[in-house]
Design goal:
Number of strands: 33
Strand content: 25-35%
Helix content: under 10%
Shape: elongated
Largest sheet: 4 strands, antiparallel
Length: about 300
């Protein structure tokens, strides 16, 4: 009985393997083109025609009617060391990305730059759109930016029309900074009110010049009008201070003493000075740092209380 059950299990496993082998593989022995049917590429050739199959979430089988199946290849064959090159295909005349034809792309000169990015002799493409019509001069400008002879780009967005004066200032944390004749930029965010000569990046998205303090929140720029640029210090990701004030992510802590200020919990956004306890930038009522229980560990705080074990 045990042997019989083992044989049955073996046949079931073999059957499943055969099913998935047929499902995930579709090759044409005549063309020699053998990508899997449900691979990331999604391309295959059968009976002299080229197809794209998007997989389970896009199960429609699409015939690439403009493609010459005889010369059709995925571009990882031409660019084996470029990640995601298999998402592109060409018949030598046309170029396809994820099954869609890039209308103006030249299959003879097209190069894969990355996922959704490529160029030919004339243009640089993001997905199916032209980003730059000056591919000959399109180069890396460091810090995540690109440039050609006319523009500076962050992704597919133009951030400067002055590539000649572009300078890479460096990267601090997750933010890279550049300058041009108009001012400062970080990725797609411009800081044109900054004084370029005295501009200085700090940790956690903060920066200063001779008279201003700036905070970058993703792509949003905030100027901390209450902060003193000359004495401004970054304490942690959420807390900063100057000679007279303390801030929680740009928000001033009312009456906080920077000389006695300390962070109780960065995770819970709890802090205090010698007289008050703060949650975020709000004073916790009836909480007195002088009366913290000796030997007790902090547990949590919110807008109404601070609690110890």
């Amino acid at each position: 009985m045990a042997l019989t059950n083992q044989i049955r299990r073996t046949f079931v496993i073999m059957g499943l393997l055969g099913f998935f082998s047929n499902l995930f593989s579709c090759s044409d022995s005549k063309s020699g083109f053998k990508p899997g049917l449900l691979t990331a590429r999604g391309y295959y050739v059968k009976n002299g025609k080229a197809y794209w199959y998007g997989g389970f979430s896009n199960a429609e089988l699409i015939e690439l009617t403009s493609a010459n199946a005889k010369s059709f290849i995925t571009l990882d064959e031409k660019f084996p060391n470029v990640e995601f090159a298999s998402s592109y295909a060409s018949d030598g005349k046309h170029v396809y990305f994820n099954g869609g034809r890039i209308k103006d792309a030249d299959g003879q000169t097209f190069e894969v730059l990355g996922y959704g990015w490529g160029k030919d002799a004339r243009n640089v493409y993001s997905w199916y759109s032209i980003v730059s019509d000056d591919a000959q001069h399109y180069v890396d400008a460091k810090g995540g930016l690109k440039k050609d002879s006319k523009h500076v780009y962050s992704g597919d967005k133009i951030v400067s029309d002055d590539p000649e004066s572009l300078k890479f200032l460096g990267t601090v944390g997750y933010h890279s900074y550049h300058s041009d004749s108009r001012g400062i930029m970080s990725g797609r965010t411009r800081i044109d009110s900054a004084d370029v000569a005295t501009f200085r990046p700090l940790d956690h998205g903060y920066s200063v010049d001779k008279s201003q303090v700036f905070l970058l929140e993703t792509t949003k720029l905030e100027i901390l009008k209450d902060a003193d640029a000359k004495s401004f210090q970054v304490i942690s990701e959420f807390y900063t201070k100057d000679a007279v004030s303390v801030f929680w992510r740009g928000e001033k802590l009312t009456d906080a003493n920077p000389g006695t200020f300390k962070i109780i919990s960065e995770e819970h956004h709890c802090s205090c000075d010698d007289k008050r306890v703060y949650h975020h930038n709000k004073i916790v009522p009836n909480a007195d740092p002088a009366k913290f229980p000796a030997g007790k560990k902090y547990k949590y705080c919110n807008d109404s209380e601070i609690v110890f074990d």
